[in-house]
């Protein structure tokens, strides 16, 4: 499985879910003893990187006169952080020009994702390419919410900061909403928008 995330900086990324390796590490040839917590840290390192990392940490312990490897000893040895903290981001898409407020994956198409952002845009991505398939700007306001229909594969809705909900039906149009639900006049977002557009002399 995988997860699609939007960030405050506007990035849209995909992460694949992986199981941590559970293979045992042989410490019989170690020159110092490894405690259980230190062993747990090493077990999460990629198998191909473990020998060099262990040798680096054990050399540090010998030089410091330490008889046991603990988590603090591992970090004091200052190994390459990329070995300990594996970067799991697998794919980066063309992002929004501002925070991503919502991400929703299609319940019908496994490779489609919908996003909404502070740049006023809603985007439809295929998870197989970086560029969005579709980009719409419902009303120019901050887009707070986005969701695919759970009943119709080509329908999605986007909610804006002024309280409007724009419903798109890709079977009818790829750019114009099929329906726009406006907030009532006494809705806080609508009142704020109306007030912002009123000028007094």
Automatic annotation (TrEMBL):
<keyword id="KW-0963">Cytoplasm</keyword>
<dbReference type="GO" id="GO:0045504">
    <property type="term" value="F:dynein heavy chain binding"/>
</dbReference>
<dbReference type="InterPro" id="IPR015943">
    <property type="entry name" value="WD40/YVTN_repeat-like_dom_sf"/>
</dbReference>
<protein>
    <recommendedName>
        <fullName>Coronin</fullName>
    </recommendedName>
</protein>
<dbReference type="InterPro" id="IPR050687">
    <property type="entry name" value="Dynein_IC"/>
</dbReference>
<dbReference type="InterPro" id="IPR042298">
    <property type="entry name" value="P-CP_red_C"/>
</dbReference>
<keyword id="KW-0853">WD repeat</keyword>
<dbReference type="GO" id="GO:0005868">
    <property type="term" value="C:cytoplasmic dynein complex"/>
</dbReference>
<dbReference type="GO" id="GO:0045503">
    <property type="term" value="F:dynein light chain binding"/>
</dbReference>
<dbReference type="GO" id="GO:0042073">
    <property type="term" value="P:intraciliary transport"/>
</dbReference>
<dbReference type="InterPro" id="IPR036322">
    <property type="entry name" value="WD40_repeat_dom_sf"/>
</dbReference>
<dbReference type="InterPro" id="IPR001680">
    <property type="entry name" value="WD40_rpt"/>
</dbReference>
<dbReference type="GO" id="GO:0097014">
    <property type="term" value="C:ciliary plasm"/>
</dbReference>
<keyword id="KW-0677">Repeat</keyword>
